[in-house]
Amino acid sequence: MFNAKEETKKIIEFIKKYFVDNKLKGAVVGISGGKDSAVVTALMTKALGKENVIGVTMPCESKENDRKDAQLVAKKYDIELINVDLTDTYYTFKKQFSNITKETTNADINIKPRLRMSTLYYVASIFSNIKKGTYIVAGTSNRSEAYVGYFTKGGDSVCDIKPLINLTVSEVIKIGEVLEVPEKVLYKAPSDGLSNKTDEEKLGVSYKDIEKYLNNEKLSQDTKERIEKLHKNSLHKFIIPEYKRCA
Amino acid sequence: MFNAKEETKKIIEFIKKYFVDNKLKGAVVGISGGKDSAVVTALMTKALGKENVIGVTMPCESKENDRKDAQLVAKKYDIELINVDLTDTYYTFKKQFSNITKETTNADINIKPRLRMSTLYYVASIFSNIKKGTYIVAGTSNRSEAYVGYFTKGGDSVCDIKPLINLTVSEVIKIGEVLEVPEKVLYKAPSDGLSNKTDEEKLGVSYKDIEKYLNNEKLSQDTKERIEKLHKNSLHKFIIPEYKRCA
Fold it and tell me: For residue A30, what are the β-bridge partners?
């Protein structure tokens, strides 16, 4: 049985211990307006104190409503929120490729998470200088997303601590309830904010079914195969082939 | 005993097999003008055919000579070489932070490898579209660099295949000799092209000594401790702490 109160307490202890053991000062969280980053913001604030957590919004052709929800999260936990607009950077980057091809629709989608990762590390580095102590980047991926490879290699998967990576979507929501994450954010349909689709529409499978799969509960053969295919097709994001010396 | 000819043959077989097994079409290599990317370019060309390898130069306030050396490598192995100038993107990116701080010297150094990683994946994605088959990003890190953490998390360490990761600097050079990498490139003092220092000046230890360490050869206590400290201080780049559920 998942005891959300107990797990919440333990995650906060885990974060505290890692920061103390490694003499770290603070954390940077990219706040998207979705539940995962809200829960991570809450956990970091409880573990480190609100003065040691920096939230970052990184709009890039994004929905204005998502930024408002991010502001709601920052306000709720009373942390500093920095806005870094990546739109100009994104278009400047893309312009360099205009002589190679015009067709970049599929290629485009992963640039933003990579620019966001670069931004979070840059903010962490700047604040490490200003505050005279090391700031690290907090990851927000959860177990359900990770299992089906729903993340960008070199993007949102690059981070320094993973508080939610072994918790399914429904477990993250329960943790969020304990931490009183604003309901509007906690129960919003998950979306990457990159396409105009929800995660579940893109994946072709529901988080409820992924969770059933992870818990060995009964599922239709079709759904099972769909999840296994997503997992298999994303293994290359986890396992990078290395040549081993023959002698 | 390291048999460079035999290892070269085996690396080429390893690359071929991975591409065939995973139905991949081609590889993208960021060519810096240094030995590692030159050796990887040679290996990929032998394994996949020159028509399936794309070289990319990504100057960003870089030395013009490095680009010339990259052109020499591309010419030698007769592959297509694309130039993506990242200077404008870099300055556009930095401009977004001008209201936070002026002091960004330390923070700046890691942006370029992250923009380069984003570029290589973008090129891979564009060519996958154009050529109707999957292109992946070839990594160029070697064992000596990796051991002392001499790479950027979320930057040059993000890739899809690692042909050199278990070979020391001198072994990479021997492979390069077999593959007839231009001497000017192969024997150049390694430098990241980011600072004005060579790698060895930055690390405070020579690759020769790192290699002795890795081979359990005799070293002064000071040098040994320096290498162990570099290794220990970079472990956070390899091991990301994850909260494990308590029940």
Answer: A56
Residues in chain A: 247
CATH top-level class for A4-189? alpha beta
Of A116, A117, A171, nearest to A145 by C-alpha is A171
Closest CA to B193 of B71, B74, B58, B91: B58
Q: Which of A115, A122, A167 minimises the CB distance to B118?
A: A115
Helical H runs in chain B?
4-21, 35-48, 64-77, 87-95, 105-108, 111-131, 143-147, 169-178, 183-186, 199-203, 207-214, 221-233
Query: Is A129 within 8 Å of B106 when comparing Cβ atoms?
Result: yes
**Side-chain-facing half-sphere of B85: CA atoms under 13 Å:** 9
The Cα–Cα gap between B90 and B111 comes to 8
- Give B126→chain A minimum CA distance, Å: 6
Q: Are B153 and A158 a contacting pair at CB < 8 A?
A: yes
Cite the beta strand spans of A79-211 per DSSP E.
Answer: 80-83, 134-137
pLDDT < 70: residue spans in chain B: 102-106, 247
Contact status, residue A26 vs residue A127, Cβ threshold 8 Å = yes
Locate the chain B residue with the closest alpha carbon to A232.
B22
Question: pLDDT digit string (tens) for A108-151?
Answer: 789 999 999 999 999 999 999 999 999 999 999 999 999 999 99
Domain B4-190 has CATH 3.30.43.10: no
Please tell me which residue of chain B has the smallest CA distance to A106: B125
For residues B79 and B73, give the distance between their C-alpha atoms in angstroms, rounded to a whole number.
9
- Chain A residue nearest residue B10, CA to CA: A246
Which candidate from B88, B111, B171 shows the least CB-CB separation from A118? Answer: B111
Domain ranges in chain B are: 4-190
Nearest by CB to B130, from A2, A101, A126: name it. A101
What is the value of ipTM here, to two decimals? 0.94
Chain A: give the shortest CA distance to residue B221, in Å: 25
- pLDDT tens digit sequence for A18-45: 999 999 999 999 999 999 999 999 999 9
Q: Residue A106 has what pLDDT? A: 66
Nearest CA to B146 out of B224, B79, B231 is that of B231
